[in-house]
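Case study 2.
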Amino acid sequence: MSKVSRRNLLSATAAGAMVTAAASARAASFGNPDEPPQGAINTKGNPASLTDPGPQNPAIGDQFPSAQSPPPTDVSDMPLFWASFNNAPKRIQNGGWARQVTQADFAIAESISGVDMRLTAGGIREMHWHLAAEWGFVSYGNCRVTVLDEMGRAYVADVKEGDLWYFPAGLPHSLQGLGPDGCEFLLCFDDGKATEYNTLLVTDWLAHTPPDILAENFGVPVGTFSKIPLHQLYIFQGKLPGALLADQAAVKGAKGFPPHPFTFSLGSSAPVRKTKGGEVRIADSNNFIVSKTIAAALVTLHPGGLREMHWHPNADEWQYWIKGKGRMTVFDSGPKAVTMDFNPGDIGYVKRSNGHYIKNIGDGDLQFLEVFKSPYFADVSLSDWMTHTPPAMVAQHLNVDEATIAKFPSNKPEIMPE
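Prediction:
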């Protein structure tokens, strides 16, 4: 082959590559950026590409339209960031039940595990303590909580729907449902591996301690403990407690009460941000002083509202979806972008610094909790970043003029529309 013919061949190959690259570049479009392009938009002229004739469970599949047909901006995959209490087995006892989702069930959830628990009126979660800190959110009814701090100061309080409690790791406590219909609540532990079914229970300890040691420890005859339960109670039906003031007086010792409450009224607190699209309430160590390892935000989105594009620089986000219907897209390097749908009782999880947004896609209010293993709440708003970077710099990134950039929200709205 001559040098000339080889040169011609190389030129032709390069030209062909340029044509292919140009055609590929033209294939991408706004709202459909990837090569090959993704989503149902690719099926024009070939509708069979969307059909799903194989085995399926419509009761489940219909709950996840974004998994069945993701938006064309989704790309690649990432660890599943959806779980649910709705299919978690219940441990049912006389007095209530519990179900949990830990990292054993939900691999991505490294920092937080969750429990959904129900207590009847008078139902008792027996006296116990944990190796992890416990953060509670009341989703229904009323509950009485007791806790003893390391200084020997007791705390007793009644909590209602929307209220919180926080018990640092190792502090002993109990929970009891009140009238008229007991309670249901969410528990979060600051360890993804923590399990509700592996707690340190007072009945277990006494049953596994020699009777003579019990007698010596409490300064009473051995026979005093002849009728103690030989198996853990865990959850059991008890009698409704008396007046709160009476219980508080009964537990008061010489050292008085703890300096800071172990409970907090998140649901009835003033929103830190309120817009046309919804509102946000926050509880962390700044206003709920004892809560040193868990921070949370209670977010309400009105129909059509958007929890703005943002990320959390300080911790992973564990979510509990309380009511309504929502859709969340999570963005990671790669690029990776995955969209998932959520309903009441579901759990979401977003890794630290992964970008995400949440859209209310239902007819009523959407409400969910954002929970973090951190003493404080922190997030970074995309629009806030864009409006606090020199406009000329942003304009060159987006091919948008500076006058338009000046219209972006510059006050970190949290929820859109403002």
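The CA atoms of residues 214 and 220 lie 8 Å apart.
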